[in-house]
Write the structure tokens for this entry.
Amino acid sequence: MMRKITRDNIKRVTAGKKSSARRFPPQCRTKLHAAARKIGAAVNADPIALLPFREDTMQENFLISIKGRQRVNGETGEVEVTTLGSYVQRGGSRYIVYRDYASEDDRAPRTSILKVEGNSRLTLMRKGGDNTRLILENGKRHLCRYDTDFGNLTVGIFTSRLVSKLNDTGGSLDISYTLDVNSALSSINELSITIKEVKASDVKN
């Protein structure tokens, strides 16, 4: 039978014993505190501020097509978005940036940022009334923040398939993943993204 832990029990156990906790010198503690603040700032940072380039320098010279399919309780829904956006490579990662709208009724624009690292990891971030931040990594499950009409949720995302065929001029991404809430399956999802460079002559005013 486990004994109930109380303050008195803790005092009796620790009385007369030297603490085994490691003590760091002041300069190390300062560095640890600075690192902790940096991590905290990154989690809550404006996604645009995390970009390795300025937002006002982005050129919308790529056609971005996104097709999503979601299956919930046996019912399937689909959504398709085609828009102009930016596609650049910085520091070994590729960035896909575009603007869209939350719904037909809500016409306030929001900026979506897809950061592709190598061939197995994608991070989705949004700015503009939606603080969703999702990490999709091949063969792994991540706990992420997901914005809904009912508020922020912490959801589990397991990515069973992520295939990247991106190159310097565009390409495609195909992703299969599941969402779970409190470890209970919420939805099964498929995402297909294609990127194609657009020339000025292809754009009709």
About this structure: The beta strands are 62-72, 75-90, 93-101, 109-117, 121-127, 133-137, 141-148, 151-164, 170-181, 184-197. The radius of gyration is 23 Å.
